[in-house]
Amino acid sequence: MFYRREIRNMETINILRSMERSHMLVETKAKIGVFSIALGAYLPQFPSLVPEFEQQYEAFKKTIPDTVEIVDGGIVTTKELSMAAGDKFRAADVDLVILQLLTYATSYNMLPAIRDLNVPVVLVNVQKKKAPDYEHTDTATWLGELYACGAVGEMVADLERAGKRHAVITGVVEGGDAYVAQEIDEWCRAAQVRRRFRYTNIAQIGRPYPGMMDLYIDETNLYNRMGLYTKQFDWEKMWAIADHITDEAAIRAKAEEILDTFDIEGGATVETVWDMARYVVAFEEWVKTEDIALVASHYDGFAQGKAGVLDSMLIPAFSMLIKQGTACAVEGDMKVAMAMSILKTISGTGQLSEMYSIDFNDDICIIGHSGSGDADISAKKPTMKIVKVFHGKTGGGYLTQFYPYTGPVTYLAITQDADGHFRFVVAEGVNEEGKILSFGDTNMRTRFTCGAREFVNRWSEAGPTHHMAAATGRHIETILKVAKIFNIPVEIVTR
After folding, report:
1. Which of 14, 24, 192, 197 is deepest in the core (most CB within 10 A)?
2. What CATH number should be reported for the domain holding residue 394?
3. pLDDT, tens digit, for every residue of 327-348?
4. What is the pLDDT of residues 107-118, one digit of tens each?
5. Would the pTM count as exceeding 0.90?
């Protein structure tokens, strides 16, 4: 397991760097409740433990990534201090609680702090030293620098009885511990998803593609179960969204950004993409004003006049939004927009995709989609071209194609059961070099350990929607943490 995680660290390091550079149009920062516990009876018996624990706690807080905000519950040694920490956590609506076990402590040090919270508690069970100096370790040194394992079972037993979700991380401070650092980082990234869903909105423009009933969704159920609020927009509003955009400097800068992002078939200039840039500026303003982090849209009208202008350039416009962290899904699919947002939040990439074909000769699946996509998943500059018809859709216009990195890839779909409960369906594979379809859609050649035929059987039997999101790298471990935060099940198809 440790080796697997070390490999995963190496695979994701560049992705994490990319994520750190990524700018979200609508910023959210997870709030992490952090506290530590120790048995109060030890402190008067061994006064040296007080500065020792204070130093350890301060050092521990510095291991929490600065991508999140710490809500500091302090060192807890009494029921009263635990209650005070809980008051802080509830007031801040923390997305996760991380508990450092300094030494043995009784359950009452922990339970009051988390009793009224509905988020997981991550128990960080790390000892300061790698191993005892067996002949020269006194009781104070053992309790302060070497105690591990004893209290964790007690904490988990009482978390179970309290109906609380939990996880345990065991490790060591001395010499550094990559496993502990990776686990804490993944939990913090997972917490970002909760914050993003809870404090932003999803925009539904129009309705889902007629007849794609797997995409249909109850917006009230979505809010109650996932914390994500739906804002409804009619296309009539969208057609006029750029009417007030007159700042030529802003439009020109955005046009240059579009040209920097895409290779446009036949060539293009700032003037060529001027109207597109105007709409991108307008959509960016709209996203910020409405606190929108996710978009699901589908237009089923007549692509004429203003409607035709916007419809023709919506794909690259939404691709520019995706690049900046706003998940934009076609065909009105709110569930895949959620999956895209989750992957973009935890990994820095989030691409819409679906099963296209099987190459039985090579035993690989061809997976992709037309429409808007994520430039951050593309190994080379994506292309843009004009097509006469969007297949199965109204009108025609600009189509974008992205060229996903080879190497590990993660797929995530979000589905629902008969009672409306959400469920994640996930798989990891490897994208390989090779021929792709040439008609302009984004394609990946993905090899799965179970083989292409078996993957399609397993994935389909899991009952996902026909859309899924894709991200560069291996992210199942982090997705499992996201699922625990939202308290929803996960089906792992293959790794």
Report:
1. 197
2. 3.20.14
3. 999 989 999 999 999 999 999 9
4. 999 999 999 999
5. yes
